[in-house]
Design a protein that fits this description.
heterodimer; A: mainly alpha; MetI-like fold; 11 helices; flat; B: alpha/beta; 4-stranded antiparallel sheet; 8 helices; 22% strand
Chain lengths: 260, 267
Amino acid sequence: MKNIWLERLSPWILTIVLILLWEVIVKGFGISRIVMPSASESFYAIYEFRVGLWKSSLTTLYSTVIGFGIAVVFGVLMGVAIGISRPVYVTVYPLMVAFNAIPKVVVVPILVLWIGSGLQTSAVTAFILCFFPIVVNMAVGLATIEPELKDVLRALGAKERDIVIKVGIPRSLPYLFASLKIAITLAFVGAVIAETVAGSEGIGNLMLVASSNFNTPLMFAGIIVIAAMATGMYGIFAALDSRFTGWATRGSMNFATAGG
Amino acid sequence: MAFIEIEDVDLVYRNSFGHEVSDGTLALSGTNLTMEKGEFIALVGPSGCGKSTLLKVVSGLIRANKGKVTVAGETVTDPLKIVGMAFQNASLLPWRSTRENVLLPLEIVEPHRQRFRAEKAHYEELADKLLETVGLEGFGDRAPWQLSGGMQQRAQLCRALVHEPDLLLLDEPFGALDAFTREELWDVLQALYTDRKCTVMLVTHDLREAVYLADTVYVMSARPGRVILDKKIDMPRPRKLEDLYSRDIADLIQELRHHINVARTDE
């Protein structure tokens, strides 16, 4: 019983230890707050600028969730298409890899040219960043259905659609949820990049303004807030994951094989 | 007319993507086989001789390049819908309970498919009864990965039979089990067979298994595979494991073994 509690508390304990170290080191060496504010100064900045931070966080969260949501819908559809059709796979996949290899920061100025700066640009950047992992994972889940299982179903007269619905989709859910956990954090990265490069609002923009004012404590406050938001969203998807695909972690993903 | 007629079937070897190899290597060549409704046959032969491939040809999952396959009076061109299949790997779906796994074929095959939602309780009862006959009473709610390998194979047999197929195709279903579990499952299968009177094709590497279960054992040559010998097994049913140790049966197994050894060295 005690061990379980210790296990649950250990990341919090580490966090507190790191914050204390941060405080002690900055204070101990007398580092200027413009270079590196102490933990207490950073947390005080969260309180001090709470109105601005709250508004910026909501903006960032908003564009992140919109971009992420669109990426989930289209990513799943695209993943299904690639996963079940070999022609689509050989045609589309190489291009997707190439597009994904483009550093996303360079896309933002083009987006600004097309759709202006603001929420929509952040949302689209978030979408671009997190679309790819969703597609790939969905496709892998579908493409790796055991051939025997397909035969069992086909020998019953199952159409390709039956196979996808009865086996393909449920089987790729663990892959999908794994990708969602990565995608949501990437979406935050995308939104903040866009806000930093081209935005007039949001956490990214707030950081930029704070930097030009040499308000380093506010910059650290921004980092803490964004980290908390991204971790929170990750937690939501991790919870959904274990709720819906518990069988994948309790059983074996390679489908319990026979043997004694 | 026989229930299954395989006439002069040639099949070009395929790679894992299902594409024919370019040099046209044959997996099956001039294969002939006929079997009657309600018959239980076993296919044995050296590994890689195309036994499993022949099963797929019969089920319509693969089309023969040459020759003709007729099942129940109709030429096979598409996957048949009257077939139940089981493999060495139980391939049960881990997100479904054992009962739901057994029910899977009923969600696909007509006319059950139409009625499935409305009569779910009835079908669940059916599945539970079937699980009971193979010794899995009370395991319906368990997840497949909570079952042992032998239990998974029992569940797989239920899945193969739940829609009462006319033809049961078994591809080494007991191949990965230990000897004791395997012998237990022979009797499970024998009981299911005498009970249901379906037609069974069993691919196996185990000659004792073939002799114990089948009415006729067919020996196939090395690749390209064709049937080189058929042997009627005159053992009254229900058969008992002790029967396998009688003089006649031991000689018969020895003879089959000899033929397979010859076929292997012929390569």
